[in-house]
């Protein structure tokens, strides 16, 4: 007894899958970009809101009272410069960065020999991580469901791919 399996049109099917892969890159880029925007907004929120328990002092030009952040807390906003410098940048299609262009950002984030750290980007990343992971997971599930539907449709309408 002999059973012969012959697959027709496999190259065409593989080419279709490759083009489908390219079509899926944009939605994943959107998830990555959305994750970076979430980190940015968490960082901004931690600077603009939240408890600040550092020392209170007078500032001049213009005259105002300012409450600083305590070590370990996100920096307290005074002029808004730090917040305005936090940006999301897409360096290539698969990579997005969240960075602060303020020249003193690294001193706040990591501290110096004279100032203890007031981190804002790393904690924002950690707070955002579960939501980003869930968004990626949801996109993978959605993509797998879409691929399964596509394969079923191809098999139903292209019975000639496989003949016994």
Task: Give an account of the 3D structure.
- There is one protein chain.
- This protein is an alpha+beta fold and 164 residues long.
- The chain has one domain.
- 52% of the residues lie in helices and 15% in strands.
- It has four helices and six strands, in the order βαββαββααβ.
- Strands 1-6 form a two-stranded antiparallel sheet. Strands 2-3 form a two-stranded antiparallel sheet. Strands 4-5 form a two-stranded antiparallel ribbon.
- β2 and β3 form a beta hairpin.
- The protein is rod-shaped and about 90 Å long.
User: How much helix is in the residues?
Assistant: 40-55%
How many DSSP E strands?
6
| Oligomeric state | single chain
User: How many domains comprise the coordinates?
Assistant: 1
List the helices and strands and how they pair.
Elements: E1 6-7, H1 10-48, E2 56-59, E3 64-67, H2 81-84, E4 86-92, E5 95-100, H3 105-110, H4 121-157, E6 162-163
Antiparallel strand pairs: 1-6, 2-3, 4-5
